[in-house]
Amino acid sequence: MNKVSMVLVGGLLMGVLAAHAKLPAPPPMSDADKAAKAQKDAAAKEKDSANLAKAQDKAVANYKKNHAAMGKK
Q1: Is the four-CA dihedral 24, 30, 31, 34 of positive or negative sign?
Q2: Nearest-angstrom CA–CA distance, 61 and 39
């Protein structure tokens, strides 16, 4: 029993130490890397915007279809 508790305490201590570890800073980005990242982010934002608009249009069409059917009781 004593060995089991010591192993658990050791694991807990290692976990606490790992939680306080710091990662090294990322290397600085060059201007070309920054431009590529900005272009990639803009493309992702445009795609997300298009997907959101498509989902909103689908939701509105579904609401209109079902709302009209609900009123015909």
Answers
A1: negative
A2: 33
Enter the pTM of the model.
0.54
Helices (H) and strands (E) in the chain, counts: 2, 0
* pLDDT tens profile 40-69: 999 999 999 999 999 999 999 999 989 877
Q: Specify the DSSP class assigned to residue 73.
A: -
Q: Please, which contacts does 34-42 make with residues 24 or more away whose CB atoms are closer than 8 Å?
A: none
- Predicted local distance difference test score (pLDDT) of residue 72: 61
Number of Cβ atoms within 10 Å of the Cβ of 46: 10
Neighbour-count burial for 18-38, b at 16+ CB within 10 Å, e otherwise: eeeeeeeeeeeeeeeeeeeee
